[in-house]
Amino acid sequence: MTTLGFLYPGHFAEDDFPRMETLFDAVRLVVNHTAIDEDAYRTDVLMRAGAPERLAAGVEDLQRAGVECVVWASSAGSFLYGWEGGHEQIAALARAAGVPASSTSFGFVHAVRELGAARVAVATTYPEHIADLFTDFLHSAGVEVTATRTAALASATEAARWGPDQVRELAEAADRPDAEVVLLPDTALHTVSYVTELEELLGKPVLTGNQVTAREGLRLADRRAWSPRLGRIFAAREAPPAPVTRWGEGRAWAHGGRKGRSGKQAEPGRRRE
Predict the structure, then answer these.
(1) What is the pTM of this model?
(2) Sign of the CA dihedral 45, 214, 61, 93?
């Protein structure tokens, strides 16, 4: 069983995580809630939520659960620190937790790279000045943002109340033909239940806050997970090992080759004629 730890600010769309857990095989997602001073999409409030001492205070329960890594499950609470500051934030979290650490913002970067994409569209619930800082963060990672659409909500509570129709409308408004992927960064949005519907609607991969947060934990734990119901980023299985046709051939390969039926040594990776 692979056990992944997540620090989630407040209580908004954290029920996405048990939904994802049911879709993975032998993966446990442990969520611990961190305190927030105020539910407001303001720069000062969001940066306080991601302060190193605030995150460090939340790791003890995760340590007792035996997690293999910790992910700070907040987009704005990480990208507002900038590219360098974001690295410092997760380095401090790793020291406090004693295991590898990351954040949702870096999860987006790694997921975009995994998809082989270079251009994205951003559909966000944040006010415009905060959305601009997410764009800056992506630019620092070498990701081009072709368009950004903001809903300019005031709080995570408002985002958590959104249903599929509102999310769909925002994603469609943000999408552009030259965007290879559409990003919905807010972890307060419920999206896990209908990621595949969004992808069918837009005809391209969709990455959402809680989805990429879970994937980032899997990446840190070096664990692959397959679940097409969570979108294209989870749709590829690992190739199974090549079959061994006769007992003992694997040992022969391990020692630099194997003998064919003629008794001659065959080179590894070469087909016998």
Answers:
(1) 0.86
(2) negative
